[in-house]
Amino acid sequence: MRLKCPSCGAEYEVAAHLIPQGGRHVQCTACHTRWFVNPAQEPEPSEDRIIERLEAWSSRPRPVPVPVPQPAPPGTAGRGAEDPDSGEVFVWESPAAAAESPAPATAASGTATAEAPAAAAPLPPGVPQPRAVPEGRDAPAEAEDPAEPAPPEPTPARSASRLDLTVDPDAPPPEAPAQSRFAKGLASVLAVFVLALAVYNFHDLIVARLPQAAPAIDAYVHFVDDLRQRLAEGLAAIINRA
Prior knowledge:
- By secondary structure, the protein is mainly α.
- It is built from five helices and four strands.
- It is elongated.
- Residues about 80-95, about 105-120, about 135-145 and about 160-165 have low confidence and may be disordered.
């Protein structure tokens, strides 16, 4: 269908299926004017056009219907057309009539009877015959499968922070390596030397703070002075000999 903008007169060719039955708003891309468009309506045919259509329809050849044989519904195989051999005449019954016909009477209690199961084919000789299993309380209990032993639970890994109870408390402690023992001995000697040097240099302060330690401190100071004097005399004698 063709649309024309009421503002600028621009014309557009639009497919008829894009305009629904209730109409829709459209917008001009040139001047952006919006207006409502109703769906296109076919013009009413004239009287001459109607007569031409009727004549063309009446002159069109019509196909002759050919009867198609209907297949017999299930359960009505014995009810068919006339059997030329038996001499009996059977009447066709439509599926609707068969559905409306009353169903055969069931048992007096009103419950539906189940079809009898087909007889089982005889088994060859040598094959054990299946034994019927009684139902209800007399039925033997099904053999239960022996319970499978539960898999052993994985033993959690021993945490490093926990106490190792496998250690023998009476076992001797592991020996330290020689290098660590030498380092400990050297550190001990240096600590004693530094302590003795501090006591000798600060003996006045120590005696002032601890008067009761004065005799021991004085004896230690005299011993160190005597040792220093002997070392000095020995070194002087060695130098003079050289």
